[in-house]
Specification:
The chain is α/β, with parallel strands linked by helices. Helices cover 47% and strands 15% of the residues. The chain is globular, with a radius of gyration of 18 Å. The chain binds 5-O-phosphono-beta-D-ribofuranose (RP5).
Length: 169
């Protein structure tokens, strides 16, 4: 089975955040690979990995890192595949350092940056990209989104049952 998504992280200390992306891709039946690579601590390996991933069938990268988070930017500089960045909260700056590192990319080298610790949304966005060319993935994604709608409708129905003396409906 060829991987469609590559999930990478700067350290396995990022795994508690990044595993939410892996779990969502599992749920959607999307094959992925997952590795720890560091832009600063394994620069050559990171560069080589990004160049070879496309040959293995990868279509989208999800790259998570904390602190001076260069990993998604380095991947984006090395490949023309889309890169989604997940800023990981962990330093004294609470992840703001990682957000700014990912957002402030130079013209021509974008990183689609999600919220701090937003690995789930990174996987949803990657799935939306893949759904453009795969009706099976598009169907599973539509089911997932319908589930979100039902969840809120059910929550609203439960809320309606709560009595307050000044509630008007
Ligand atoms: C970053 O430094 C990693 O992505 C991680 O968020 C942070 C700390 O790494 P470790 O010291 O836990 O390996 O490069």
């Amino acid at each position: 089975m060829k991987p469609l998504v590559s999930i990478i992280m700067g350290s396995t200390s990022d795994l508690p955040v990044m595993e939410k992306a892996a779990q969502f891709l599992d749920e959607m039946g999307i094959p992925f690979e997952i590795h720890a690579l560091s832009a600063h601590r394994t620069p050559q390996r990171t560069h080589d990995y990004a160049r070879l991933a496309e040959e293995r069938g990868v279509k989208v990268f999800i790259a998570g890192a904390g602190m001076a988070a260069a990993l998604p930017g380095v991947i984006a500089a090395t490949t023309t595949l889309p890169v989604i960045g997940v800023p990981v909260k962990g330093s004294a700056l609470e992840g703001v350092d990682a957000v700014l590192s990912m957002l402030q990319m130079p013209p021509g080298i974008p990183v689609a940056t999600v919220a701090i610790n937003g690995a789930l949304n990174a996987a949803v966005l990657a799935t939306q990209m893949l759904a453009l060319g795969d009706p099976g993935i598009a169907r599973r994604l539509a089911d997932y989104k319908a589930g979100l709608t039902q969840k809120i409708e059910k929550a609203d129905a439960e809320l309606a049952k709560i009595e307050y003396s000044h509630k008007t409906n």
